[in-house]
DNA sequence: CAAAATCCGTTTGTATACTAACAATAATCC
DNA sequence: GGATTATTGTTAGTATACAAACGGATTTTG
């Protein structure tokens, strides 16, 4: 043992993946809130995926957007309150609620898509073309 | 205009950076909760940084751990309730509270450091050595 | 077919995370 | 030195996020 070999734990917070992921996410969320003040990023994700799919049950939409049942419920409640999403009982399965974007929801989504693309670009702005592709490829593996 | 050139917005949620960042963060948080059930990742970050620094005022610790004043307050409240952190008034500035890790806090931190390293490794496990370095380098730029 | 297991949506509780506003204190400026 | 400005910590309000438990509906299984 060297004289400096004490039992102080060798750990620094700053370079840890978890800390960096959290901060990168924070930065992205700030850019999102600035670019799309109308909706939170989660609400936009739910609306976007629902417009992609045309319709979905509540829990299925949650799975498609990586939100658990309790989370997607709150998100959908808020979107419904603003008449962006409609919920109808499923005649074939009485447990299910079939969600559909309203005309207003689809219109808002269509209107916001350009801003959403700009937010993605702004988030990746510190990287050059090659780095972006690399980063997205690797990030996808950590999902 | 080609016949297929309609006004449907071209947007897919799945490949967007924001969506991937959120999911990567979720995966990391799940690994963290499994590896360190004692503390949340945020609480551990605050405790770790405080042990690194020795002491800090509340808002300064928040800045060092990327938490705003309202967030760090709740985190510190919970750590204090568990006697992991001590808060003393600063005689030089009566607005400030000087935070210090308790002996128990330092012991817990020292005990958890190996698990924290394992969580970092588990989070990055899908990447090989080169990819990890690349990913961390690029992620740091998006902070 | 009946029992068990699963799935659906809901509710409660806890923990981030940010905005906004606030009182108390410090620092700065004219 | 007095007014303005900034900082510190607090509070209230909103929005994810997840765990755990629940009743009801459906599916699987024995």
Which two protein chains have the largest interface (Cβ within 8 Å of the partner's Cβ), and how many residues from each? A-B, 51 and 51 residues
- Low-confidence sequence ranges of chain A: none
Helix content of chain A: 55-70%
Task: Output the strand order for the largest sheet of chain A.
Answer: 1-3-2
Order of helices and strands of chain A: HHEHHEEHH
Q: What is the CATH architecture descriptor of chain A?
A: Orthogonal Bundle
Q: In the CATH hierarchy, what is the class of chain A?
A: Mainly Alpha
Distance separating the two termini of chain A: 41 Å
Tally of structural domains of chain A = 1
- Individual helix count of chain A: 6
Mean pLDDT of chain A: 94
Question: Which key terms come to mind for this protein?
Answer:
homodimer, 143 residues, mainly alpha, Arc Repressor Mutant, subunit A, 6 helices, 61% helix, 8% strand, WH-like_DNA-bd_sf (chains A, B), HTH_MarR-typ (chains A, B), WH_DNA-bd_sf (chains A, B), MarR family transcriptional regulator (chains A, B)
SSE inventory with pairings:
The structure is a homodimer of 143-residue chains.
Chain A: H1 17-35, H2 41-53, E1 56-57, H3 58-64, H4 69-81, E2 85-89, E3 97-101, H5 103-124, H6 129-141
Antiparallel strand pairs in A: 1-3, 2-3
Chain A binds a DNA duplex (30 and 30 nucleotides) through residues 26, 29-30, 33, 40-43, 57-59, 67-71, 73-75, 78, 93-97.
